Amino acid sequence: DVHTRPRVFSVWERYRHRQAHWFVECIAETMGVFFYVYAGVGSTAGFVIGNLSNESISSVLQIGFAYAFGILFALITCGSTSGGHFNPAVTICQVIFRGFPIKKACRYIVFQILGAFLAGLLVYVQWRVNIRATEAVLHTEGKWDAVMFTPQGLAGIFALYAPAGSNLGQVLLNEFVCDFLIGLVIWSCMDPTNFLVPPSAGPWIVSFSYAMCIWGYSPVGLSTNTARDLGTRLAVMAIWGTPAAGGSYAAIAALTNIPATILAACFH
Amino acid sequence: DVHTRPRVFSVWERYRHRQAHWFVECIAETMGVFFYVYAGVGSTAGFVIGNLSNESISSVLQIGFAYAFGILFALITCGSTSGGHFNPAVTICQVIFRGFPIKKACRYIVFQILGAFLAGLLVYVQWRVNIRATEAVLHTEGKWDAVMFTPQGLAGIFALYAPAGSNLGQVLLNEFVCDFLIGLVIWSCMDPTNFLVPPSAGPWIVSFSYAMCIWGYSPVGLSTNTARDLGTRLAVMAIWGTPAAGGSYAAIAALTNIPATILAACFH
Amino acid sequence: DVHTRPRVFSVWERYRHRQAHWFVECIAETMGVFFYVYAGVGSTAGFVIGNLSNESISSVLQIGFAYAFGILFALITCGSTSGGHFNPAVTICQVIFRGFPIKKACRYIVFQILGAFLAGLLVYVQWRVNIRATEAVLHTEGKWDAVMFTPQGLAGIFALYAPAGSNLGQVLLNEFVCDFLIGLVIWSCMDPTNFLVPPSAGPWIVSFSYAMCIWGYSPVGLSTNTARDLGTRLAVMAIWGTPAAGGSYAAIAALTNIPATILAACFH
Amino acid sequence: DVHTRPRVFSVWERYRHRQAHWFVECIAETMGVFFYVYAGVGSTAGFVIGNLSNESISSVLQIGFAYAFGILFALITCGSTSGGHFNPAVTICQVIFRGFPIKKACRYIVFQILGAFLAGLLVYVQWRVNIRATEAVLHTEGKWDAVMFTPQGLAGIFALYAPAGSNLGQVLLNEFVCDFLIGLVIWSCMDPTNFLVPPSAGPWIVSFSYAMCIWGYSPVGLSTNTARDLGTRLAVMAIWGTPAAGGSYAAIAALTNIPATILAACFH
What is the mean pLDDT of residues B126-133? Predict the structure, then answer.
């Protein structure tokens, strides 16, 4: 005869099942963030090292394209599993406007930052020979202290630093306007009534909104994404220690995009 | 019992309702123009400042891509609200060929110029540290007067100036041919019988027609859009005063695209 | 009572009607060739003049993109009117494989060459100030005779010249392989059973096949299209006289693409 | 009366028929690999020769675009005939996960390598004048031995060499991560349940996944494809002899992508 299992077992099983699903979703968020950070930071590495060693390896144009296609691949490969946030600001907007559960949102954000952190470390390891060689040149030229933790320095490959002479108001504004415009494009592409954007075109358009901002505004300092900025900043601190943290600019760069994206969602 | 409201109230209400709708449409036109001017002028800022300081930040190729995607985002985000003119010449063509109301057209044009003006000011503020630094270098090198209000100078980021040695006939022709070709592409993409251009591809193709003209003909002086040119020229005059106006070339650059677009519409 | 018109009238009318239709088709071919020659040669002008004056205006990458989008616009705006040949080799293939009338083909080819000729002249006029200034510099440096009619010289903007040291076999091979691959892409995109290429994607893919060949093989001398080459060569001879003709290399460049395209059609 | 043919005849006929079909499929694989190797290596030739002679002909950005469109054309023209592997790693995955016959897989791989070999030889012949001229300069400057068989040398156009100072672990990791990500994109695009990727968009997205890896990671040494690497390495050895083989790095570059692609298929 059939005798029922103690209730605790099925609770446990259901919990584990939910856990597994959560875990797959979180891995998808991690992979997605990993994808575009890996794509973009790789080209940035070429740009910074190329400039420091007078070689032409990369360009702002190339960095923009690399991020754009990285975001496209993130949306294509992982978007359908996790919903394709890949950005704490988008996750927070989903909590506010579409009732996304807060607990899940927190997990998403942690795993997004993890993805950026892992990508940052991997890019460092893959470019290590070139980074070390360039660092050695900076040391012998006595420029290491002045250049290292600036947008043109090697740590600037991974994390954003305040450009020389910039004030925080300007940095805040730069960040805010770009993130607002990106947010506007994202919400327009997610709008199912927008007949100019079929589902298959949305990821392309969202991706290139980042490229556009990188082309025009990365030279004056741009972060656009808390996960990307915080994750790679942790990676860079793991490599070069606390001087790589970047001060109050770091906090602004890491957080401005959140209210900007929320405002764009409201405006739309 | 129901007693009817005085007629004046409902007239007023209807008027206000129409006003609000007009206002939303005008904001959409402003946002659209803002989008592509912001995108394009940001990359132009990088190009001009990079050339003056011997850094490689941007390129004509990048400026073309930036404008193209800016126009794409304008059409995607604001096109369905306002009809997606974003260009006084297109608005005037709609008046002539499709019975668009003249009063509304005037509002559209004013708000288009406003969008370009706001974008110009914002780009200035976001790039101010770099612009000021480059201006200081020009002053110390004694080049400020000679370079500032030329296509290679800092004011050339925002407004178009006559290239050295060019005559107005050539500028007129350059402007006219490019605008005619862009107009031809626009009318082809808006033609619903054109099976090579599904609705979702139209914005992409129109956007890249601007990029093509920028790549080939911006080095000899190109405006393509009265709103863009007049709006950013006003912005640049608000920043550097009347010497930034640019003389008779300004008038030609600002207005040539209108007859060219009309002619393209006829030709099509 | 109705009395029938003399037969000669209706024959004449039908003839005129056919004429008008032919004329519209031929104008479409002219416009199409004009479009991509204008797009591509404009960027080439920036590249050649930029290299001669040590400015960074254009690049091989940009020339490739410019031609690609020029071809796209040609197909979009004029393709549905005339069938979108824009290339004598394609017209000849249509005669051989799809029974396109020979008389009509001859007209098409003449009007294709006319389009390239007009585009070449217009580009010259629009860039004239810069071309004249660069010519003056070449004269004062005594380099005019050595550089002018080479791929790096000002005439090289419009027509193709044999690169220094190249032999005709190599040029022939370069031309042939590129044109064969472009032809293969064209016939694949025109194949209605190819489910990877919907009608709206075909023009994009064909366009970028030219870009790919320009990126990889234009530095060693590439023409790809008899109309483009012959038309702009006539333009350049109208400007600088017979030394601009370019010798036996000219004949090869102008004609190799025809057998290559035919072979690609067979292969497919 | 009908008398039956000896059985040997029909066996032979069926064999020949199968042979012919196999042969067409194998030619399609050869052509496909030829397409993207020809596209990419041509732009690489411009980049390497341009750098050695201080001319700006190509860039890492351009090489990425060239490979991307080369892969797109391969998929468009030959994909429907042979299944569009063009990569031994994809063929091996098809054997493991989708029951692709092993014998056929071996033929595919041989013909893939043949395609890359032919493309390598053709690129050499088409660029020979420029390659010889650059080699002569390297000889007179006494740099030939030091530069020739490095990523910056002329043999580096065709085959991959270990960058100076790199260790094999780093090269292995670089190769593995890139190939894993490309594999992930390929399997996502082949997944028919992925509504973000219609069949016509798949080839574009797969193509640009290679571009992204080239932009970010080719400066530290990237092969991504056994056929491409082995085929062009054989071509380069046919040209410059055994010193062009490249040692243990060659083996790693040529084979790492296979387990990486398999792992990506598992992960997906």
Answer: 88
Nearest CA distance, B186 vs chain C (angstrom): 9
For chain A, list residues with pLDDT below 70: 1-20, 247-251, 253, 268
Show the 3-state SS of A17-70: HHHHHHHHHHHHHHHHHHHHHHHHHHHHHHHHHHHHCCCCCCCHHHHHHHHHHH
Structure tokens that stand for C113 in this block: 């060459």
Q: Provide Rg for chain B, Cα atoms.
A: 20
Note the pLDDT of residue D61. 92
Residues 63-82 of A with CB under 8 A from D: 65-66, 69-70, 72-73, 75-77, 79-80
Q: Residue B2: what pLDDT?
A: 52
Contact A181 B73 (CB under 8 A): yes
> What ipTM is given for this predicted complex?
0.87
Tens digit of each residue's pLDDT, chain C (268 residues)? 555 556 666 666 666 666 667 788 888 889 999 989 999 999 999 999 988 888 888 899 999 999 999 999 998 888 777 778 888 888 888 888 888 888 888 988 999 999 999 999 999 988 888 888 888 888 898 888 888 888 888 888 888 877 777 777 777 788 888 888 888 888 888 777 777 777 778 888 888 888 888 888 888 777 677 778 888 888 888 888 877 777 666 667 677 778 877 877 777 6
Q: How many beta carbons lie within 10 A of that of residue C237, not counting itself? A: 18
Return the number of other C-beta atoms located less than 10 Å from residue D2's C-beta.
4
- Compute the distance between CA of residue A37 and CA of residue A119 in angstroms, rounded to an integer: 6
Q: How many CA atoms lie within 13 A of B83 on its CB side?
A: 18
Cβ neighbors of D123 (< 8 A, separation 6 or more) are: C216, D37, D38, D41, D42, D45, D157, D158
Closest CA to C170 of C262, C256, C243: C256
Q: How far is CA B74 from CA A24, A25, A103, in A?
A: 36, 33, 36
- Mean residue pLDDT across chain D: 82
pLDDT for the residue numbered C5:
58
Q: Please choose, from the candidates C69, C49, C65, the residue with its C-alpha nearest in 3D space to the C-alpha of residue C57.
A: C49
Q: At what angle do helices B102-126 and B7-52 cross, to 10 degrees?
A: 40
Residue A191: both structure tokens together: 């709008």
Please judge whether A69 and D174 are an interchain contact, meaning their C-beta atoms are less than 8 angstroms apart: no
Amino acid at C254: A
A116, A87, A68: which is closest to A258 by C-alpha? Answer: A87
Q: Kindly state whether B206 is in contact with chain C, defined as any CB-CB distance less than 8 angstroms.
A: no
- Confidence band, pLDDT 50/70/90 cuts, at residue D225: confident
Alpha-carbon distance of A65 to A43, in angstroms, equals 9
Q: How far apart are CA B51 and CA B53, in angstroms?
A: 5
Report all structural domains of chain A as residue ranges with CATH numbers, in order of start: 7-267 (1.20.1080.10)
CA closest to A58 among chain B residues: B56
- What is the per-residue DSSP string for C207-255? HHHHHHHHHHHGGG-----HHHHHHHHHHHHHHH-GGGG-HHHHHHHHH
pLDDT for D16? 62
> Is B174 an interface residue toward C (CB < 8 Å)?
yes
Task: Tell whether C190 lies on the interface with D, counting CB pairs under 8 A.
Answer: no
Of D31, D39, D203, the CB nearest to C196: D203
